[in-house]
């Protein structure tokens, strides 16, 4: 279960509700949802006096998901090193530890396709996913194949197999959900096993304020806790209208604010993953900010309408259409941009290559352009595009490196990324510049004392040019193997001269 002390959110994508196809003969199986009316589990008038009949019908299709992962820990991060004076000699190599994760999911076809959250099955950046196990309510375990994942929407599909058909449930139409409707959540909180909670729909189209293309949820007060991730949120007709994904909590436990990915957003993504299709989303290449009261007052425009462009990505559709920082986009493809229907969401749900109208305000005047929507880059590519955007050279930056396992961090106390053309443009250097750009420096390192900082580029080491992090770490490894305690780096700050600077290794 993902949670936060303030705001927790996941990435989504929109589309139409789709019924899952199975590998079994048509009509041979009946969805658990359909049995509800056959067995009169829910009266037409609304919520029953008890949820027992509804739960009995639906629970067989809700499963527990567990993973086994292996994590390699480098010597400098071995928690037992503090008890030994391990400097040279002895077995000071990396160690491997095992980790596990638990979550929930639900079967969407008789032939065993299972839907869950991506973060339930996605390993840590330093870990390798070894196996996934799906456990049915009767305790039967099945090894699961990871069919596909979509980190942006935080969705994943697994496949389990047996000779007999599986019980399954179908997606419903979440667009029909109303505030106040009864719902039940079934999942595996805290690893306890199948647990059912009930509540109502507290809000629809709930945004958490983080923005982005996928920040829209069904909010419910049905208790959702760690381990409920990936489990279904059912309406009183037994249809899956949401996938439990996150909670807002000051304590880490449920306080009655649970968030579920709407079925209308999740269902087409699940269908695409099952079919092995690539998931494409639209992109126009802008960094945006919601129009708050102060921005509206300053620009003399309507509140709660539109989004302010902070920067435009070179070479993308927005730049080609003449958009620039300071413009306020108020509609795209004839859809108004509002807090509940953000620019990112509208554009993400437009097929790449589609020509659409866009209306924006500049200097108090409305303007209209037509642009061709591009293809949204991967999350990793977007992160690189924005790696140094917003950096103010006159303002101190957070130079603390993230914890990781690389030799750069272990020996030099720095984090760095390969200089791609996108990063080169952010740094103001030629697109064909090769090397790595520093993103963080340990303040206790010799690198920090020598003036290495965020945005400084490392172009070479010990007389050799480099183009990737791996090439730099290979040189560091050779130096360490030779018993050296320093490396000579060829450095360049944006707008500065190239110079060679010796940097001593950190104490091991």
TrEMBL record:
Residues 273-350 form the PDZ domain. Coiled coil: none annotated. Its EC number is 3.4.21.107. It holds the Pfam family PDZ_2. Residues 1-28 form the signal peptide. It catalyses: Acts on substrates that are at least partially unfolded. The cleavage site P1 residue is normally between a pair of hydrophobic residues, such as Val-|-Val. Belongs to the peptidase S1C family. This is Probable periplasmic serine endoprotease DegP-like. It comes from Aurantiacibacter gilvus. The lineage of its organism: Bacteria, Pseudomonadati, Pseudomonadota, Alphaproteobacteria, Sphingomonadales.
């Amino acid at each position: 279960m993902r949670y936060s002390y303030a705001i927790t959110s996941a990435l989504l994508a929109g589309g139409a509700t789709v019924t899952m196809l199975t590998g079994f003969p048509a009509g041979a199986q009946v969805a658990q949802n359909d049995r509800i009316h056959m067995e009169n589990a829910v009266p037409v008038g609304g919520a029953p006096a008890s949820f027992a009949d509804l739960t009995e019908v639906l629970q067989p299709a809700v499963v527990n998901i567990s993973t086994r992962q292996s994590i390699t820990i480098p010597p400098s991060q071995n928690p037992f090193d503090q008890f030994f004076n391990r400097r040279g000699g002895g077995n000071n190599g990396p160690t491997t530890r095992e980790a596990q994760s638990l979550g929930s999911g639900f079967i969407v076809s008789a032939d065993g396709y299972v839907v869950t959250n991506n973060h339930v099955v996605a390993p840590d950046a330093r870990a390798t996913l070894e196996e996934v196990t799906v456990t049915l309510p009767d305790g039967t375990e099945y090894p699961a194949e990871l069919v596909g994942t979509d980190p942006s929407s935080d969705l994943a599909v697994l496949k389990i197999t047996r000779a007999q058909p599986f019980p399954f449930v179908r997606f419903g139409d979440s667009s029909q959900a109303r505030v106040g409707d009864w719902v039940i959540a079934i999942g595996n909180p805290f690893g306890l096993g199948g647990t059912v909670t009930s509540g109502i729909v507290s809000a629809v189209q709930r945004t958490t304020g983080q923005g982005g293309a996928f920040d829209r949820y069904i909010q419910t007060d049905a208790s959702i806790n760690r381990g409920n991730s990936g489990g279904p949120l059912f309406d009183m007709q037994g249809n899956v209208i949401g996938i439990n994904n996150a909670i807002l909590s000051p304590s880490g436990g449920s306080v009655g604010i649970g968030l579920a990915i709407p079925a209308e957003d999740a269902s087409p993504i699940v269908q695409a993953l099952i079919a092995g299709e690539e998931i494409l989303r639209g992109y126009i290449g802008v960094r945006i900010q919601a129009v708050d009261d102060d921005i509206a007052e300053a620009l003399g425009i309507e509140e709660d309408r539109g989004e302010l462009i902070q920067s435009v990505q070179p070479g993308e559709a927005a730049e080609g259409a003449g958009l620039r920082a300071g413009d306020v986009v108020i509609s795209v493809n004839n859809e108004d941009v509002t807090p509940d229907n953000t620019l990112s969401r509208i554009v993400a749900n437009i097929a790449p290559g589609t020509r659409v109208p866009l209306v924006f305000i500049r200097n108090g005047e409305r303007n209209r352009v037509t642009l061709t929507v591009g293809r949204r880059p991967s999350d990793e590519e977007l992160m690189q595009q924005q790696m140094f955007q917003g950096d103010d050279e006159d303002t101190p930056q957070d130079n603390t490196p993230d914890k990781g396992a690389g030799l750069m961090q272990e020996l030099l106390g720095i984090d760095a990324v390969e200089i791609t053309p996108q990063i080169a443009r952010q740094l103001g250097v030629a697109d064909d510049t090769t090397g790595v750009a520093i993103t963080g420096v340990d303040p206790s390192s010799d690198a920090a004392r020598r003036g290495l900082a965020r945005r400084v580029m490392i172009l070479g080491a010990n007389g050799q040019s480099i183009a990737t992090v791996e090439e730099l770490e290979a040189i560091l490894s050779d130096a360490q193997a030779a018993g050296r305690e320093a490396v000579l780096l060829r450095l360049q700050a944006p707008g500065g001269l190239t110079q060679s600077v010796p940097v001593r290794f950190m104490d091991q």
